[in-house]
Design brief:
Oligomer: heterodimer
Radius of gyration of chain B: 20 Å
Shape of chain B: elongated
Order of helices and strands of chain A: HHHHH
Helix content of chain B: over 70%
Number of helices of chain A: 5
InterPro entries (chain A): Anti_sigma_zinc_sf, Znf_put
Protein name (chain A): Putative zinc finger protein
Radius of gyration of chain A: 22 Å
Keywords (chain A): Transcription, Transcription regulation
Organism (chain A): Kribbella caucasensis
Largest sheet of chain A: none
Distance between the termini of chain B: 59 Å
CATH topology of the largest domain in chain B: Arc Repressor Mutant, subunit A
CATH class of the largest domain in chain B: Mainly Alpha
CATH superfamily of the largest domain in chain B: Winged helix-like DNA-binding domain superfamily/Winged helix DNA-binding domain
Helix content of chain A: over 70%
Strand content of chain B: under 5%
Number of domains of chain B: 2
Number of domains of chain A: 1
Pfam families (chain A): zf-HC2
CATH architecture of the largest domain in chain B: Orthogonal Bundle
């Protein structure tokens, strides 16, 4: 059994799939009986989505032109 | 220029030209306003190392690795002074607990999700740009570009433990900066949006 502190400390790694099998089982066992840590996990999942949703920039036409020019001038 | 060199140049040009929008978009999130310089550098280095590319299918990931190094170089050149970060304090910070303690939306029954809902894509970008490149780059590549930590370690030629440690610190810094940004820009005020 692990404490809330230990479980929360591994939540992102757990969501990223980089914890080993034994640690994964311990985190899951903890989450199955701790409502507060389930709230933290839901928050961590939403935080990941927020991070993934950062703005994706279109390339401005003048920048594209200059970069293509660089490719033209490669020697 | 001999025939094979001309052929090589044409082939690289076709391959890199198709990748420009994607490379620029990544660079913009990694180094902000220095994105064009980073992509220029990436194109020059990519052409110099073109003979190291194993197959056309791996070109996007190969160019991304070169771009990341260019972004590191460009970021270093434009950095005025290194940021001093108290990681002991950052490590103790929990955005989840901070929101619960400060209770910025007293009438909300989904306080934590409402907090995150205040951040539009431009806000998230602004928060990311407040992080030092050393921590911002792995966050962008893993959580936005879908790289696996293991793959990133291989591409950056860094030990997996180093990449995982930077990701961990990057996430903690991101949480802390989300709170600071919300406080400084008035996102937490009622009716701010």
């Amino acid at each position: 059994m692990i404490s809330c502190h230990e479980a929360v400390g591994q939540l992102w790694e757990y969501l990223d799939g980089v914890v080993d099998e034994a640690d994964r089982a311990l985190v899951e066992e903890h989450l199955s009986r701790c409502r507060r840590c389930c709230g933290e996990m839901e928050f961590a999942q939403e935080l990941r989505r927020t991070l993934a949703g950062s703005v994706r920039t279109e390339i401005p036409a003048d920048v594209l032109l200059r970069l293509n020019q660089t490719l033209e001038e490669l020697d | 220029m001999d025939a094979s060199r001309t052929e090589q140049r044409e082939s690289f040009r076709a391959l890199a030209s198709a990748q420009l929008p994607r490379l620029y978009s990544i660079a913009r999130r990694l180094v902000g306003d220095d994105a064009e310089d980073a992509v220029q550098d990436c194109l020059l280095k990519g052409f110099q190392r073109y003979d190291q590319l194993k197959s056309a299918e791996s070109a996007p990931a190969w160019l991304t690795s070169i771009l990341v190094n260019s972004c590191h170089d460009v970021g270093r050149a434009s950095a005025r002074r290194p940021q001093v970060i108290d990681f002991e304090e950052v490590e103790k910070f929990s955005l989840y607990r901070k929101i619960a303690y400060e209770d910025p939306f007293p009438y909300s029954d989904s306080l934590h999700l409402d907090f995150l809902g205040e951040f539009g894509p431009e806000d998230v970008h602004a928060v990311l740009m407040r992080l030092p490149p050393l921590y911002r780059i792995p966050l962008v590549l893993v959580y936005m570009e879908g790289f696996l930590a293991k793959e990133l370690a291989r591409r950056l030629d860094a030990p997996l433990g180093t990449v995982l440690a930077r990701l961990h610190r990057g996430r903690k810094l991101f949480e802390k900066e989300l709170w600071e940004y919300a406080r400084e820009t008035g996102l937490l005020k009622e009716g701010a949006r």
